[in-house]
Design brief:
5-stranded mixed β-sheet, 71 strands, 17% helix, 42% strand
Length: 960
């Protein structure tokens, strides 16, 4: 039994009625107000909270409030964390309960409750939606005293008995009585009606009468005669129709059989005989609660109660078991004193003391069908199972025992603080010492070889020559077991479970794999791939798989007497578990079919935002800064965890990380504005999680200066001056740069005009030289033709020199005119061709007078001096890759190297053309590239190429 009293926060003397509400909370009436228990905290409501009468029999849980039933008058209720009494809610004054106490009933479907004065049945009070209605009863209470048995809120029928034990019902709406047929003994006292079973007792308290209602008749089904007279305080029927009877003299009688299949020969179980029990509650999880007169409340879990009733209800079994073993017939237990016990399948339990002079703790037990060895701290006791006599061999009287391990026929290995010894229990003597160091465990793995675990290492020991070899270093092995051939499992004190063979470790199972602890006491084998590990935090079942092992933890919540497990014995489907609070006997199948999750969810009791506490959390809660500190008050009423509760939670919208806390108050400080969802799981004992999470939406609204529009406006106001300053600065820089560009362009234009001004005299000078040459030769006809062409050339040159650009067609016409003029001068020594590709648009614009100086230079320096061949000029216009190319080739003397080329081409016309190219680049973003190549390797002559393209493929009007 778990006892909760003043030390746990239940600060009262007497506890009365117990009730569990829909959420799972336990409510307790007491002589100091009433309490709400969530498995961890007892929350007390008394005069400080507004109760006018702190002697509270119990409470009634309504839909949205808790109706408080005091021992005397002054009914009250609890709603949203506050208590309302007859002063704060005048409607309650209509309920006159008097001084004799009262009963209350609730109909959940109609959300209405009924309150009756048990000593004055003149009326009944209906309480609904905060209003009280008085319903008169016409049963003539002054002429005959009636006792209340029950009230059916669905049919509106009171079940009453009169002084003559006549039973009748009374419909409070129809005002009709109905008498039932029942034969009662003269001195019967009617107690209660449950599930159509009427219970009564005789005045002597040694008989309990059970009647089942069928139509208008109550038929007696059983008479239970108790061994002695008992002063019966109350009777309770559980869901399996088993009786629990509380006695005024102390204790509970439990009849472990249903009423419908009752065997009078089966005796009831008596427990809690030192305590007077006022009320019994079986909660939603089938755990049992008892309220007591002077000792708080008691709790026993469903699984443990079933284990107790089925196996150990007739024996005292609360000693600290430190070792356990079994043979084919019995289970042997060793305690933390020099006491041991034998438990046989027929449930015969025998305890005996092995040493009256000392209290030696048991460390290990070895048992077969003939002999048992009880290994204690300072000695080993041997028992003969044929006569159950025990003795201590002289050779085993001073050993500090650590373990006893089966070895050969009639032999065991005794591990102790000095060595590992072979003991022959048939000869009753030590026959050999195999290992001369402190040892904790051993295992024979070959006929002549052992594994021996010292304080920190595991050795291989040769039995014949006593030689040892270090096998695994740094492991404190507490137990070794063989799984199958060449496969072993070791329990360690710090490193979990180690799976190994004769050569190496194969697998290590630790907390990282799901173990609740790495400290393992013992290992017991169910199957080659299934083992059970005993720890101080429960019993662990480990199923070895190819990947991650499957691990289940079993604790008190699953029926173990205690989480501190010394070891276990497996017999078919049954586990015999030695714990610090006695022996547990459980079915493996039932353990494995238990729920892996807790069928509950966390309750959010209230939310504190700023300085205000909200109890109604059905609607979304909103707040704003500076009230953005939030506290969630939580409960997880999983009573089987016995207070070992924690919470796994996160604030969705803030981050996605799950946190774990042992506190029932989850605090978030200074949450930023936004929409959040608080989610929380409950974690019970052993890490079991609630089947789902509880959630609570929260919205933190921003203050006006936290809104996006305010931030945007503020940012705009901050950025605007900077933008203005930057804009002014950039504008000044642009103006300055623009002025510089304009200035540079003006200079370039002046340079271009100067260059053009230089081109005209240069060209005229060259032409006059040619005319002078013709006159010198007295070739007057040619001179006349030349002068005619020269006049046309002068006009066109003057015309084009005023223009910046000219079309390709105009350029070709101008070049033809010039070459014809030069052909007249050179007579038959010059030929030329001008070709324009189909890809070239004749209207494309190119810099004016750009090509002619290069053609003139080719004639003057390349062709005019030829003696062996006729001079030839080829001019070609082509277009590819967004570039116009103009090629000028001659078959003159050519060039020999770069220095010579530069020297030969250092003519005035070429220099002016190069300057014009640079000026066009600067003024019009027109890219003009000049190439001069020698053709001497193939034939003769020089090639000049001009490439004209706009920068970055921009359409500048140059062409296209």
């Amino acid at each position: 039994m778990i006892n909760y009293n003043q030390e746990d926060g239940l600060n009262c003397t007497v506890t009365y009625r117990l009730i569990q509400d829909e959420q799972g909370f336990l409510w307790i009436g007491s002589d100091n107000g009433f309490f709400r228990f969530d498995g961890i905290e007892f929350k007390n409501y008394n005069a400080k909270q507004g109760l006018k009468n702190i002697e509270v029999l119990g409470v009634l849980t309504l839909k949205n409030k808790i109706l408080i039933i005091p021992f005397l008058n002054n009914i009250a209720y609890l709603e949203k964390g506050a208590i309302y009494n007859t002063d704060t809610d005048p409607e309650l004054r209509k309920i006159k309960t008097g001084t004799g106490g009262f009963e209350a009933y609730y109909n959940k479907q109609r959300d209405e409750s009924f309150i009756l004065n048990t000593t004055d049945l003149s009326c009944i009070y209906k309480y609904k939606n905060g209003k009280v209605q008085t319903i008169p009863l016409y049963i003539n209470p002054d002429k005959n005293r009636f006792s209340l048995i029950d009230f059916d809120t669905n049919s509106f029928e009171l079940l009453l008995s009169d002084q003559n034990n006549n039973i009748f019902s009374y419909n409070i709406l129809k005002k009709k009585k109905h008498v039932f047929i029942i034969k009662l003994e003269k001195k019967e006292w009617l107690v209660q009606l449950k599930n159509n079973i009427l219970i009564s007792i005789n005045k002597n308290g040694n008989k309990i009468f059970l009647y089942r209602r069928k139509g208008d008749t109550f038929n007696k089904i059983h008479t239970l005669e108790l061994e002695k007279e008992h002063d019966i305080h109350d009777i309770h029927i559980d869901d399996n129709e088993r009786l629990l009877v509380s006695l005024n003299s102390g204790g509970i009688l439990f009849f472990n059989q249903p009423i419908t299949n009752f065997s009078p020969s089966k005796k009831p179980y008596l427990f809690l005989q030192d305590y007077v029990i006022n009320d019994i509650l079986i909660d939603k999880d089938k755990n049992i609660w008892f309220s007591s007169r002077d000792n708080g409340i008691f709790f026993i879990s469903k699984n443990f109660f079933a284990n107790y009733i089925n196996y150990f209800s007739e024996i005292k079994n609360s000693a600290n078991i430190t070792s356990i073993a079994a043979n084919s017939n019995s289970v042997f237990l060793g305690y933390n004193v020099s006491k041991a016990a034998i438990y046989s399948p027929n449930k015969k339990y025998t305890e005996f003391v092995l040493d009256h002079s000392q209290k030696n703790e048991h460390r290990a037990i070895f048992a077969n069908d003939k002999t048992v060895l009880f290994g204690q701290t300072q000695r080993v006791s041997q028992m003969n199972l044929s006569n159950f006599k025990s003795f201590t061999p002289k050779s085993l009287q001073t050993f500090n025992i650590k373990n006893i391990v089966p070895y050969l026929d009639n032999e065991v290995l005794i591990c102790n603080s000095s060595n590992v010894s072979r003991y022959n229990y048939q000869l009753k003597k030590i026959v050999d010492t195999l290992f001369n160091e402190r040892s904790y465990t051993a295992l024979s793995y070959q006929p002549d070889s052992l594994f021996v675990g010292s304080f920190k290492d595991l050795y291989k020991v040769n039995v014949k020559n006593k030689q040892k070899k270090l096998f695994l270093e740094g492991y404190y092995f507490t137990d070794l077991k063989k799984l199958k051939d060449n496969l072993y499992a070791g329990a360690t004190n710090l490193h979990g479970i180690v799976i190994f063979n004769n050569h190496k470790i194969l697998k290590q199972i630790t907390q990282a794999d799901g173990l609740v602890t790495n400290q393992i006491k013992k290992i017991d084998i169910e199957k080659p791939n299934i083992l059970w590990a005993s720890t101080n935090t429960g019993l662990i079942r480990i199923e070895l798989t190819k990947n991650k092992p499957k691990i289940n933890l079993f604790t008190q919540t699953d029926g173990l007497p205690s989480d501190k497990v010394a070891g276990c014995v497996i017999k078919k489907d049954t586990l015999y578990i030695g714990t610090s609070k006695g022996l547990g006997i459980l079915s493996i199948k039932e353990l494995l079919t238990q729920q892996k999750f807790i069928n509950k969810k966390v309750i959010i009791n209230s939310v504190i935002i700023g300085a205000r506490e909200y109890f109604d959390i059905s609607n979304n809660l909103t707040t704003e800064s500076p009230h953005n500190d939030i506290i969630f008050n939580l409960s997880f009423p999983d009573f089987t965890s016995q207070g070992k509760i924690s919470y796994k939670y996160k604030m969705e919208g803030l981050n996605d990380n799950w946190n774990i806390s042992n506190s029932s108050k989850i605090i978030y400080n200074s949450l930023p504005p936004g929409k959040y969802i608080f989610k929380v799981f409950g974690l019970g004992h052993g890490g079991k999680q609630s089947y789902t999470y509880a959630s609570m939406p929260i919205e933190i609204k921003p203050r006006f200066w936290q809104t996006w529009w305010f931030k945007a406006a503020a940012a705009l106001l901050m950025i605007l001056p900077i933008v203005i300053v930057i804009n002014i600065t950039l504008h000044k820089q642009r103006d300055k740069k623009l002025k510089k560009i304009i200035h540079e362009k003006k200079i370039a234009e002046l340079e271009l005009q100067a260059i053009k001004a230089q081109i005209n005299p240069h060209f005229i000078y060259n032409c006059l030289n040619s005319i002078q040459f013709l006159l010198y030769k007295k070739d007057y006809n040619e001179t006349e033709n030349y002068l005619d062409i020269f006049s046309q050339m002068i006009r066109k040159t003057l015309h084009y020199s005023e223009k910046t650009f000219m079309s390709v067609q105009e350029e070709t016409e101008y070049l033809s005119l010039y070459l014809n003029m030069e052909k007249l001068r050179l007579k038959d020594q010059l030929e030329y061709t001008i070709t324009v590709s189909e890809r070239v648009n004749p209207e494309w614009q190119i810099p004016s007078l750009l090509v002619q100086p290069f053609v003139e230079n080719a004639i003057k320096h390349g062709i005019s001096g030829l003696k062996d061949r006729k001079g030839k000029i080829d001019i070609a216009f082509d277009y590819s890759d967004s570039t116009l190319s103009i090629a000028i080739e001659d078959n003159g003397v050519g060039i020999q190297n770069k220095q010579e080329t530069m020297a030969k081409n250092n003519s005035f016309g070429v220099k002016l053309s190069q300057k014009r190219i640079d000026t066009f680049k600067q003024l019009f973003d027109t890219n003009v590239v000049l190439e001069i190549n020698s053709l001497s390797e193939k034939t003769y002559g020089t090639q000049i190429k001009l490439y004209i393209s706009p920068y970055e493929n921009k359409n500048t009007g140059l062409h296209h």
